[in-house]
Amino acid sequence: MSTNKHLSNDAFDRVLCELGREYRLLGPRRFPGKGAHSGADVTGYGEIGSLSDLYLEGKTYFSPKECLFPVRETLFYFRDKDITPAAFDDRPTIIFLRPCDINGIKRLDTIFLHNGSEPDPYYARRRERVKFFLIECREGFDSCFCVSMDANRSDDYACACRFEGDGVRVEIKDGSFAPFFAGGEDAAAFLAFVTANKTSVQVPDLSRVDLGALFQHEIWQEYSSRCIACGRCNTSCVTCSCFTMQDVSYGRNQALGERRRVWAGCHIDGFTDMAGGHSFRAKNGDRMRFKTMHKINDFKRRFGFHMCVGCGRCDDVCPEYISFPTCIERLGRISREMTHE
Amino acid sequence: MNNPYLPRPQRILSVTQQTAIDWTFRLESDMAPGFGQFLELSLPGLGEAPISISDFGPGWLDLTIRSVGRVTRGVFVLRPGDVVYARGPYGRGFDPKQYCGKNLLMVTGGTGLAPVKSLIRHFLAHRDDLKAFALILGFKSPADVLFAAEIEEWRRGADVILTVDRGDEQWRGQTGLVTQHIDQYAFHDGPTEAIVVGPPPMMKFSTLGLLQRGVSAEAITVSFERKMSCGLGKCGHCKIDETYVCLEGPVFNYAKARLLLD
Ligand SMILES: Cc1cc2nc3c(=O)[nH]c(=O)nc-3n(C[C@H](O)[C@H](O)[C@H](O)COP(=O)(O)OP(=O)(O)OC[C@H]3O[C@@H](n4cnc5c(N)ncnc54)[C@H](O)[C@@H]3O)c2cc1C
Ligand code: SF4
Ligand code: SF4
Ligand code: FES
Q1: CB within 8 Å: A115 and B237
Q2: CATH assignment of the domain containing B230
Q3: Is the sign of the CA dihedral A262, A267, A272, A278 positive or negative?
Q4: What ipTM does the predicted assembly reach?
Q5: I need a surface site. Which of A6, A184, B176, B190 has the fewest CB within 10 A?
Q6: Minimal Cα–Cα distance from A298 to chain B, Å?
Q7: Which stretches make up the 4Fe-4S ferredoxin-type domain (chain A) (predicted)?
Q8: In terms of residue numbers, what domain contains B182?
C-alpha cells in the first residue's frame, strides 16, 4: 500500500539531507561550463544534495544511464601477475528520474543482466543497490514521443514525486522510505502519467518487408549526406549500451595499468573495423539504418519489446537536425509501399 | 557473482611458425573448448583480441595468430614458458553429429582454416563417421600456406585440394581461387554438407558457388568474423540484426546466416 504526502520545499530538503546519510543521491542537474560552447552548461545526472540542485525545467542532455554504466569504467587493475577487480562506490543509491528513463534502464538491464549466459557483474553490482524516485511528468517536452513507444508509464519506483514549485507531493510505495516522510501532511493519491505527446509515431511492423530491399532504399543515402557520425545520438540515448575495452598502462611499464570499458556507438567510425581493413557500414546512412532497426525492430524481435523509449534526446542533440521520429515515420511509409497496404 | 571479464593466466608450451606472419601458440589450458569456438586472448597493457581455438587436446589448446596489431604483435615476442591471459571459450561452434553419415566438403580461405582445423582432425580420427571427406584449402601464395606438413598427412584420410591464387617457380600444386575448384568439384552420391570459412568476399562467392552446384543453404555451415570486444553478449560490436555473433555464432547455418544483413 502506498501512502501520499505533501511537503514544503524546506521539509523536502530536510528529507533529502536525511536520505543523503544513507544513500548516494543522483538526479538531473546542471554541470556549469561543461557544454558544447565555452561557458554553456550541460545537463546530465550527478550527485544532488538539495531540491535546488535538481534540474526540472527541461530534459537532460545526457541520460541517467551513466549512473549505472559510466562513460569510462575500470574493470580491473593489473600489476605484473596480479589482476585486481576495481572497487566501486557501494553505497545504496537513489536516482531521481522520469518514467521513460526508468523504462530505458529496463532496456539496459535486458542487455547487461539477461543477454548472454551470465549477468555483467559491474553493472549488476551497481544496479542491485539502486532505488528509483520517479519524477512525474505533468506534460512532455517538445521532442518526447514516449507514449508512442509505450514508455510513458512505470510502476517500477520506490517513491514518486510531483515537484509543484512551492512544495512537493510524494507517493511512497516502498515502505522502507515511510519514516523519512513521516513529517509530511497526508495527501490524496496524485500520480499521473503523460498520455499524449506533441510528437507521435507509429512504429511499423517490418516482419513482412523485404529487408534486403529496405536496406537498399535511397533514404539511407540521404542520411549518408546528412549524418556526420558524431555519435551524440548514441551517447545521449538512455538505451545505447555499447562499449569497447581499452587498456591503459601507467608510464612506460606495460605490466602496470588498468583495463577499462568506454562507451562506443554504432554511428562512430571504427565501430565495426576488423583486422585487414574490412569494416561494415562504412557509410553514415547505413549506420543510421542499423541504429534505427536496432531501436525499433531487432531488439524487439529478440526480447519482445522495443529498445527505443521515445525520450527524444537523439533529436535534441543532433547537430544536423536529424529527427528520429521522422525517420520512423518514413520507414512506415516505405514499408507500406513495399507491402502494398 | 562470477566475473567473466577477468582473464586467467595460460602458459605458452610451444610456438610454431606457420608463415612469416601466422604463428601457432600452444597454451597449457584447462578450458575444454568445442570445435570452432574462440577465446579472448589478453595481454594486460595491450588489450584483448578474439582468437579461434585452432586445435585442442587434454590440457592444451592451440591459437593460430596473424600479427596485425597491438595484441597480436605483442604475442609474437613471447616464447615458450611465457604467460598470456585468456577468457573463454566463447561462441557456438560446429556440431560434428550434423555431418555423420554424409559427405563433407570443407572450403577454407587463408586463416579460415584455423577455426576448422580441430574438426578436420576429429573426422580424420573418426573417418567412418563420414562418407566422402574433401577439403578445398585456398591461400594467396605458397608462402601463406598454414599447417603445410599436417595438410600432407590429411591426404591419407581426405581428398585434399590445396590451392594458391598465385604460384611461384617451386609450386607444383594446384592454383586458382577456391571458387574455381568448387565449380570443378566432382560431388559424390548421397547428401553432401559443406563448411565455408574465410574472409568475407571468399565466403560470399564460395557459398554462391556451392548453391549453384546444388548444395542447399541448409546444408552449408559458415563461420563469421566480426569485430568483438566482450565475447559475452554485452558490448554490441558483433551484433547483426537481432543476432549476436559472439553468442549465436561464430558458426551459423547458412540458411540463417544469409538472412543476416549488416
Ligand atoms: C570469432 C573470431 C575469431 C578470430 N580468430 C582469429 C584467429 O584464429 N587468428 C587470428 O589471427 N585472428 C583471428 N581473429 C581476428 C583477430 O581478433 C584480430 O586480428 C585481432 O583482434 C586484432 O587485434 P590487435 O590488437 O592485434 O589489432 P588492433 O591493434 O586492435 O587492430 C588492428 C586492426 O584490427 C582491427 N580489430 C580490432 N579489434 C578487432 C576484432 N575484435 N576483430 C577483428 N578486428 C579487429 C582494428 O580495427 C584494426 O583495423 C578472429 C576474430 C574473431 C571475431
Ligand atoms: S533512440 Fe532517441 S528517442 Fe529513442 S531512447 Fe534513444 S535517444 Fe531516446
Ligand atoms: S547525432 Fe546526428 S549527426 Fe551525429 S551521429 Fe547521430 S544522427 Fe549522425
Ligand atoms: S562481442 Fe560483445 S556483444 Fe558480441
Answers
A1: no
A2: 3.40.50.80
A3: negative
A4: 0.92
A5: B190
A6: 5
A7: 217-248, 299-327
A8: 96-257
